[in-house]
Amino acid sequence: MDNVNGADVQAPKNPTQLKANFGLLKFILLSALTFGIYSIYSYSKVGDTLNIVVGRYDGKKTMSF
């Protein structure tokens, strides 16, 4: 099957459930306590999750940070 950009779309071989434990209060508190280092880490994790979910459809990599 082809997508809009012409890349082949294939179902994942081993589908797994992604972790979605992102909390706003946790993000704010840990970002403040670590002087922004946690925010960089969490942006990286969100980018990785986006690549897993939509990477097979558009064939592109999202910058993590």
Which keywords apply here?
2 helices; 65 residues; mainly alpha
Provide an overview of this structure.
It is a single chain. It is built from two helices and no strands. Helices cover 49% and strands 0% of the residues. It is elongated and about 40 Å long. The longest helix has 22 residues, at 37-58. Helix 1 (24-33) packs across helix 2.
The parts where pLDDT drops under 50 for at least 5 residues are none
Principal-axes shape call: elongated
Kindly report the oligomeric state of this protein.
single chain
Q: Which range does the strand content fall in? A: under 5%
Distance between the termini: 31 Å
Tell me the major beta sheet.
none
Output the number of helix runs. Answer: 2
pLDDT averaged residue by residue: 77
The SSE string, one letter per element, is HH
Q: Indicate the structural class.
A: mainly alpha
Rg: 15 Å
Q: Helical residue percent?
A: 40-55%
Give the total of beta strands: 0
